[in-house]
Amino acid sequence: MLGDIDALIAEGHGVDLKVKEGVFLLGRQLLVKLFEVARAMLVEETKRTGKTVERTSEVTFKTLLGPVEVACTIERPDRESARCGSISGIVGGRYSDGAERTMADFGIESSFRDAADRFEEHYGCRPRETTVRKRTEAYPEAAEAYLERRHQNARDVLGKSPREQGKTADEMLVQADGCHITVRGMDDGLGGTPASRGS
After folding, report:
1. pLDDT in tens for each of the 199 residues of the chain?
2. What is the secondary structure of 50-90 as a DSSP string?
3. pTM more than 0.85
4. DSSP state, 170?
5. Is the distance from CB of 48 to CB of 30 less than 8 angstroms?
6. Helices 97-109 & 129-158, crossing angle to 10 degrees?
């Protein structure tokens, strides 16, 4: 690209897309190299512990930089059992945390079909619509579980709930814009009274 300055000048306002393509290619190559180094370290660790590497197979792991082939070593400590030693969290056909988060972000904003189309447009591989739906629905559930844990931790530290202590407000004004969060009463456990929702 830098070798032909006339083409660069003619490209003008579209040059950022060319740079983005280059950055994605470099990023994928770096990712592949990191996985190769991690695999080599796993093989060395396997040999050092006295196990034998039987074979290596490759699985496709889908990332924000596109699908990447990752080697999975099959180790056999004895003839009775075998296990797949691989980099933590990498399973063939699955998506990286960043890819799942992006799917959820797209899925929140539009239909799951449109979200899958947008993901493909930006990241080069198209997830199934059901995959986008599952990832989109998983994030609010995880957020609610996190909030429930925080709420429980506060109850454990403070003891009684504010309502049980007689410390409650007559009214609470809140504002939310375009969110999808289950709303419950301030003192609730799992069976609290739903708070009123304004429009």
Report:
1. 556 677 767 777 777 877 888 888 899 899 889 888 888 887 788 788 877 777 667 788 888 888 888 877 665 554 444 444 555 557 777 888 899 999 999 999 989 999 999 999 988 889 999 999 999 988 888 888 888 888 888 778 777 776 777 777 777 777 766 666 555 555 545 444 444 444 4
2. T-EEEEEEEEEEEETTEEEEEEEEEEESSSS--EEE-STT-
3. no
4. S
5. no
6. 100
